[in-house]
């Protein structure tokens, strides 16, 4: 099989490499010439465990190459971004998906499969992609097979989850489902769940919305418990001992390119019936302000003017600062005229301090905003040299017992 993938980002690149590892001839296409050059010189441009090794393997075997121009293939996978539009409800901007499909249409021959993996608003395949392909004279399900197969992998575990996760195969017709299953059968060991395109679209959006709304519930619980002098983290632990309860974890907000984006795609399609989803978004968007206010209170008690932010990424063990509440908090604190140092072992930016001792020197508070593995084992010794040894761990990641350091998290903010 020959495969052309359009979009070599967080999803398109690992997916392309996975197909190539399993014997498929893959051409990876991206409009970003720098990314293409970097790949062809042997370097991947994203941090993801196991990806560089797999990449080197498929370059050596000649099964993968990167380019800016699509090439003819048996199957085309579209994995380009779908950001929010600037409208009131932040609807789904499908323009990059449509442009990507248009870019491969001149190459399409009878029997080809076109798969959209990008996250899209419900009904996008039926109402927009299908008519576009039909406008070239193709009959869907006979000449060309159209499938929405949403990506569902978790950054940090992509290489494992690509193989082992269940895959939703949303065909525009039954023949399209069969064609999609054949493609993913190359390496997927999870179940391949057959459905139509619009159910696949909505399922994907609801997965992330479920998580977003549940995190909002945990954040709300943290705020209420703080008012009432109750340890929210203990409450979560207790409640989760019930066999049908799964409270999520509070945090500094919800970031990344999925949970903070996808719920709006549903809201925009039906603003009337989406109260819970809208409130969930609002609560999570307010969390950075809540954290900043708590940090201000802690600092005020010691007349602290300098603090150190630990982690700028949207979650632990990734280098991604897109839609990161941690980064927003860092900016907000700087605007408040504190001296703010950023420390993040995963982020390579000029202003990010890499030396922990230098990062905490003369600081009055360490504000932990990402749950990087490196932060788990922090001890009193790491905080020597601070003006005040205070730490506010918004991710409940630090596991040590402190003696000289005063430790706050969402469970004991009231103390
Ligand atoms: N977070 C909390 N509390 C929690 C869990 C997460 O505050 O209890 C925060 C994280 O810190 C982060 C954000 O939520 O800021 C999102 O992180 P995540 O690990 O939940 O998810 P993503 O955005 O990295 O990946 C999600 C995954 N979706 C689900 O787990 C339902 C992934 O499977 C999807 O493929 C991905 O979105 C996507 O691309 O849509």
Automatic annotation (TrEMBL):
Similarity comment: family membership: Belongs to the UDP-glucose/GDP-mannose dehydrogenase family.
Organism of provenance: Macrococcus bovicus
Presence of keyword NAD: yes
Membrane-spanning residues: none
Domain of life (superkingdom): Bacteria
Span of domain UDP-glucose/GDP-mannose dehydrogenase C-terminal: 308-400
Keywords assigned by UniProt, alphabetized: NAD, Oxidoreductase
A Pfam family that the UniProt record links to this protein: UDPG_MGDP_dh_C
GO MF annotations in UniProt: NAD binding; oxidoreductase activity, acting on the CH-CH group of donors, NAD or NADP as acceptor; oxidoreductase activity, acting on the CH-OH group of donors, NAD or NADP as acceptor
InterPro entries: 6-PGluconate_DH-like_C_sf, NAD(P)-bd_dom_sf, UDP-Glc/GDP-Man, UDP-Glc/GDP-Man_DH_C, UDP-Glc/GDP-Man_DH_C_sf, UDP-Glc/GDP-Man_DH_dimer, UDP-Glc/GDP-Man_DH_N, UDP_ManNAc/GlcNAc_DH
Gene3D superfamilies to which the protein is assigned, alphabetical: NAD(P)-binding Rossmann-like Domain
One of the GO BP terms on file: polysaccharide biosynthetic process
Protein name: Nucleotide sugar dehydrogenase
